[in-house]
Amino acid sequence: MSVPTSSAQWSTRLGFILAAAGSAIGLGAIWKFPYWAGANGGAAFILPYILFTFTAGVVLVMAELALGRSGRGSAVEAMRRAGGRGFVWCGGMAVLTSFLILSYYAVVGGWCAAYLAEALMGEAASQDPEVLKMRFGELVSGRNIAWLFAFLAAVCLTAVFGVHRGIERLSTCLMPIFFLLMVGLAAYSLLLPGSEAELAYLFQFSWSTVTPQAILNAMGFTFFSLSLGAGVLVTYGAYVNKSTRLPSAAMWVAILALQAAILAGLVIMPAVFAYGLEPDAGPGLVFITLPMIFAQLSGGSIVAVIFYFCLFVAALTSAISLLEVAVAFLQNECRFSRRAAVFLCFAALFILGSVSALSFGPWNDCLIFGRSIFDFLDYVCTNFLMTINGLAVAFVVGWKAWPKAMKELSTCSPENGVVTKGTLSAIGFGLRWLAPLMVLASCWQGLEA
Ligand code: PHE
Questions:
Q1: In Å, what is the CA distance from 63 to each residue of 9, 277, 394, 398, 409?
Q2: Can you give the pLDDT at residue 3?
Q3: Which is the closest atom of ligand 1 to the Cα of 98?
Q4: Nearest CA among 250, 261, 256, 257 for reference residue 430
Q5: Span 174-231, pLDDT tens digits
Q6: Whose CA is nearest to atom 7 of ligand 1?
Q7: Per-residue pLDDT tens for 362-383?
Q8: Whose CA is nearest to atom 12 of ligand 1?
C-alpha cells in the first residue's frame, strides 16, 4: 500500500486553508466571474451563486477533503480506500481531468504573465481599442507558447519544493498580499464617479431578472470556482493532519473564494460603468477592456501592475494545485521521486498546452465538434469530466462510505471544537441530495452551451 511521505503535510491549518483558497481563487474568480455576472443579469447570478456555494458547494468541498484525508495518498488511492477497487477508475479520471485542465489553464496563465510583464514596463494600457485588440491578438497567436513555457516553469518550480516548502509557503506569502491589493483596488474603483450604478447592478435583486439559464450558470460556476471535481481537494486533503476540523476549514475556503469573486466584481464593474463600457464584454474584458480604463485612470499604470499581479497570483496558485494531483499520483502509484514526477508533468503539459496555444494561431481552423482545441478541452473538462468526478465523490462519500466519512469529518483535536450530530446529518443530506442535483444541473447547462 502506498503511504505519503512524512514531508507531505501542511504545517499549519492556516497554511492549508490559504493553499486551498489559492486553488479555488483563480481565473474563475477574477476573469470569469465579472463577465459572467455581467452577462447573466448581475444580482440574478450572484445570489444563486452565493446560495450554491454555501449549500451543495461547501458540502462537496468537505466530502473531497474527507475523502483525501482518509485515503492519505493520491486521488486514486483515496477512491480505492473509500469505494473499493471498482472506483479506482474514478480516481484515475480525476487525475486525467486536472491534467487536461492544467494544459489549457496554463495557456491563459501565460497571458496573465505576459500582461503583468507589459504592465511592469508601463505598456499595458492604451486608449485605443484597436491597438489593444491587435496586441491581444498578437499575443495569443504568436508569443503564446513562450509564455506558456514560462508560466509552467513557475508552477513546476514551486511544486519541486514540495507541499510545505513550496505550495504552503508560497500561498501563505501571496494570498494575504492578494487580498490586501484586491481590497485596495476595489476601494479605488468604488471611488470612481458612477460606481453607484454598478453597485445597484451587482446587488439589487429583482425576480424579473432571474432566468433559469442564470441559475444553471451559477451552479456551473460554483463548481468550477470551488475547484471541485478535479481531485485537487482530495489531494490537498491527504496532507491535512488529524487535528484539523474539516467542516470549518471547508467553510473558510468557500468564504474566501466567494470574497475574492465579489471583490473582483467590485474592482472591475465600477470601472467598466464609469467609462461607459459594456459589463458583458466577454473573456476579453480583462485583457482588452480594462487596459483601456487603466489608460484613463490617474495612477493607471500602477493600478495595472497591481491588477495583473493579482490575476497572475490567482492563476499561479490554482495551477499549482492542479499539478499536485498528477504529481501525487505519480509519487504514490508509480513510485516516482517528486522531482521526476514534476519534470515528467512539465514536459507533457508543455506539449499538450502548446496544442491548445496553437489553436489560437496557426491551428485555429482545426475544429473538434465545431470548437477550437482550447474550447473543446475546456468544454469537455468543465461540463463532463468535472461533473462526473463530482457525482462519484458525492456517491462514494455520501452513500457508499458514509459512516467512515462521518468519522473523518468529525475527527479533530479537542481544542479545535466538536462537530455536532446535527451538522453531520446536514452535511449528509446536502451530499446525498443537493450536491448530485447541482452537479447534474451544471452538466445539463453544459450540454446546452
Ligand atoms: N477554481 C479555479 C478557478 O477558479 C479553477 C480550478 C478548477 C482549479 C478545478 C483547480 C481545480 O480558476
A1: 19, 41, 7, 8, 8
A2: 46
A3: 11
A4: 250
A5: 999 999 999 999 998 888 887 787 778 778 777 877 888 888 889 889 999 999 999 9
A6: 227
A7: 898 899 999 999 999 999 998 8
A8: 26
- 79/73 Cα distance (integer angstroms): 10
For residue 275, what pLDDT is reported? Answer: 73
Using a 10 angstrom Cβ sphere, with 0-12 exposed, 13-18 middle and 19 or more buried, the burial of residue 89 is middle
User: Is the Cβ atom of 235 under 6 angstroms away from ligand 1?
Assistant: no
- CB of 401 sitting under 6 A from ligand 1: no
Name which residue sits closest to atom 6 of ligand 1, judged by CA: 227
Q: Using pLDDT thresholds of 50, 70 and 90, give the confidence band for residue 282.
A: low
> Residues 3, 103, 376, 314: what is their CA dihedral angle, to the nearest 10 degrees?
90
Taking the CA atoms of the chain, what radius of gyration do you get in angstroms?
21
Which string of b and e fits 251-260 if b means at least 16 CB within 10 Å?
A: bbbbebbbbb
Joined together, the cell numbers standing for residue 93 give 479520471
**pTM tops 0.85:** yes
Residue 1: Cβ within 10 Å count: 8
- Look at 133-142, 276-285, 307-316 and tell me which has the smallest mean pLDDT: 276-285
CA 236 to CA 74: how far, in whole Å? Answer: 9
- For 48, 84, 100, 125, 448, the CA distances from 301, given in Å and listed in that order, are 35, 55, 35, 7, 41
CA 23 to each of CA 68, 128, 364, 415: distance values in angstroms, whole numbers, following the listed order: 16, 35, 30, 27
